[in-house]
What we know:
mainly alpha, 9 helices
Amino acid sequence: MEQAGIAKGLWDTFTATYKAKNNARKISLRKELNTLNKEPSELITKYVARAKTIWSDLVATGTEMLEVEVTLLILTGLPKEYEVVATVLEIRSEELTIDEVVPHPLPVEQRLTRDQDTVPVYAIREGRRQQARQQHRSTAPAQHSKYRRPSAGRCFYCDKPGHIKADCRERIRDEKERGTSQLFMSAAGMQHPMLSTRELL
């Protein structure tokens, strides 16, 4: 008698645990089906198959759910690109099965895939231009190294780094010396370089 009581207690515990787990499973599956959305890279056929799997798992837990309800949830979970197709199917008077729904969004899916694969002509041209510019930059220094200008921060007058031509002390000194020599020449009566020495005498 005692053993029967223990067995009944164990069975009741097991039943309660199973029911609790089953209820949690039901809630989880129901939530998953109600929030069903097609992933951006997911094919329509795979999306519908995923919905059918969740539905069959839910029915296996003892929950009753009509196919028309699942069909509407599938249509609701489609992205905005499929909005027209979904609306047309939703307003139909007769009840649709899941298998009847599948062919309708397929043309939209094919068009979207084709649009993603097609690269605009202007983008191709721009890409080619950029590639040509990069190739020119990489080859230009090697081809024209003889005529290359000094790098930034290098003087164009004395070719020393650390300053530019406008601040070059060597240039300023040379210009001062040139100015002094011109002043000396004009003081000596040599402001007209075209005059010969005989004319000056």
